[in-house]
Specification:
about 475 residues, elongated, single chain, mainly alpha
């Protein structure tokens, strides 16, 4: 699904990014509106003590603050993270359609629509696989139905969704998905799970205080003895969520929403331990909880101080509070978007906040190289290599910058090291061949061009380089023969 949408964008504007950003923004707006619809209908069908006007204000506040939150920037402004936002839109539409089906006299058409949206969600990103558990939890909390009753009363919905889950598992097993390409992580599963406890608290902190946002954390692996408070805190929050869910409390559903949607990226070891876009959909639970607290402050105060007045909401005060919070979050999001104005800006921001992140230096070096600032690019790439000398791409890019600086002899050791680390990378062999050919070692260069073509037979640049190098080599042989 993601590839299809990107292909449409490419057909519209090619490498000009305006259409990509427009689509991402439309996806985010639609997701925000869908979240508004889910919250509003949930309030109307549940026993939550809000009248129609208050339910509209509550739903509007949740959707507004969720849509304007700066944590969402990565999933919206960073084009390829459409994977997260589009999956989330289809996920929310699945929940909304299921909810409409439960409210309608005839649920079939709404539940058929829910199944369709679920398939679109899991074919956008596999995280959506948790949706059926969330739907059952929703019915348990808001409609007082046990799982067996839910399955019995909505056979089309759950049979269609479970069929979609089976299809997804088959696709994952056969490969060529995000999950199936994550089996070569540089750490053990236990290290990953332990570190995720620290990462989860970082996500919670960003939801409450969104400062220090970074496009690439390069989060280090942690040891259990160093972060045991985070481990204990995560287990406690998880226990409280499950217990509250068992008690059919709204807070339990919000806790399960948060942990369940984060579960795939928290339990399946991925190469990156932390990314802000993973909080795109889980953030909704935190926002709803915060807004719920704001709406109940007056009622709790009256209860604590034992006043005789009946609880009464103050719409004017709440509206002012919502507007102020929205303006603050909107301003912070505007500031964060400014960091995305160029590759150089976003990578400079990264290394200023995460000075030990070698990919930050690598990215900045590449951005400077594209901008023609070769001397500065070389310094940042060498710094990245100093932090992580065993990364083949950093070695290759360092060699390529030296090659562009007309120093092919100095680039050869970097290309050689890159090939040692990544022997099946066609681009690295092609670069090595070009450097060797430039220094007169045509025979060895031809060997690397041939290897690049063996790895990638349709590699046009390597084929052209091979033709030129072979012609030059034959000419030199001919001249030597004449001599």
């Amino acid at each position: 699904i993601i590839n299809f949408t990107l292909a449409v964008n490419y057909a519209i504007s090619g490498h000009n990014v305006w259409s990509y950003h427009l689509v991402n923004l439309i996806i985010h707006i639609l997701a925000t509106l869908t979240l508004f619809g889910i919250i509003r209908r949930t309030i109307l069908i549940s026993k939550i003590n809000l009248n129609r006007e208050e339910s509209l204000l509550f739903s509007f506040a949740c959707a507004l603050l969720w849509g304007l939150h700066p944590v969402q920037t990565q999933a919206v402004t960073y084009v390829i993270q459409r994977c997260e936002s589009l999956m989330s839109l289809f996920f929310l539409l699945t929940v909304y359609s299921a909810l409409r089906g439960w409210q309608a006299k005839s649920s079939n058409h709404w539940h058929l629509l829910a199944v369709m949206f679920f398939l679109l969600a899991v074919f956008s990103k596999e995280v959506a696989i948790v949706c059926p558990i969330l739907l059952i939890s929703y019915e348990w909390v808001f409609q007082s139905k046990n799982p067996l009753r839910s399955l019995k009363e909505s056979p089309l919905l759950y049979s269609g969704i479970f069929l979609g889950c089976i299809i997804t598992f088959i696709i994952v097993i056969n490969g060529n998905t995000i999950v199936s390409r994550t089996n070569q992580t540089p750490f053990t599963p236990m290290d990953y799970w332990v570190t995720q406890c620290e990462v989860i608290f970082h996500y919670l902190r960003l939801a409450l205080w969104p400062s220090g946002l970074v496009i690439d954390y390069g989060w280090p692996v942690a040891k259990a003895r160093d972060i045991w408070p985070f481990i204990a805190g995560t287990l406690l929050l998880l226990f409280l969520s499950v217990w509250s869910l068992w008690q059919r409390k709204v807070t339990g559903f919000l806790g399960v929403w948060f942990f369940l949607i984060l579960a795939p990226t928290s339990l399946i070891p991925l190469n990156d331990l932390a990314f802000e876009h993973r909080m795109y959909l889980p953030l909704a639970a935190i926002i709803v909880l915060i807004v719920g607290i704001a709406f109940n402050i007056e009622k709790w105060a009256q209860k604590w101080f034992k006043t005789s007045n009946q609880p009464k909401h103050s719409p004017s005060f709440l509206i002012i509070l919502i507007i102020c919070a929205g303006l603050i979050l909107g301003f912070l999001t505007y500031q964060r978007n400014y960091d995305y104005r160029s590759e150089i800006a976003i990578w400079s921001d990264t290394i200023s906040k995460r000075p030990n992140n070698f990919r930050g230096y690598h990215g900045l070096g590449l951005a400077l190289g594209k901008n023609g600032q070769l001397d500065d690019a070389l310094q940042y790439l060498l710094h990245a290599r100093m932090i992580n000398p065993d990364d083949g791409y950093v070695n290759n890019d360092t060699g390529f910058i030296l090659f562009l600086m007309n120093k092919p002899d100095e680039s050869i050791p970097f290309f050689r090291e890159a090939i040692r680390l990544r022997p099946n990378n066609s681009k690295m062999h092609n670069n090595m061949g070009a450097a060797l050919a430039q220094t007169g070692m045509l025979k060895e260069g031809i060997r690397h061009f041939s290897e690049a073509l063996r790895i990638k037979p349709d590699y046009v640049s390597a084929r052209n380089n091979l033709i030129r190098a072979s012609a030059a080599y034959n000419q030199s042989l001919s001249e030597n023969h004449k001599n």
